[in-house]
Amino acid sequence: MHWYLEAFRKYADFTGRARRKEFWIFSLFNFIIMFVLSFTANIIDSTGTIFLVVYVIYSLAVIVPSLAVTVRRLHDTGRSGAWYFIVFVPIAGPIVLLVFMCFDSGHGSNEYGPTPKHFENVTVTT
Questions:
Q1: CA distance 123 to 112
Q2: Does 6 score more than 80 pLDDT?
Q3: What distance lies between CA 109 and its chain's CA centroid?
């Protein structure tokens, strides 16, 4: 839940980097919430209007944080946020973006800032 809320704390922050964990936890929670709202709209409410309105409001509320966390995730892999526009290429575009989201962070700092992995600079002595 921390990573989901972290994306909302950085609501419109398109600078910096986001770890895979932040991106995927945010995506998972969004999927679960949208699924529950749409399921509830279809099953419980016969007209679906109440839950449909909540679904639309939630969808509009997460557009900006979703774009921001995706751009920061692209920055973490060493790519420009402009790579997001590849989703508009039919069929192949969303697949390519999905693959980019799965890549590991670039080690160390890049042009978008220091690595978000806090444990990277810790040395272990035995």
A1: 24
A2: yes
A3: 21
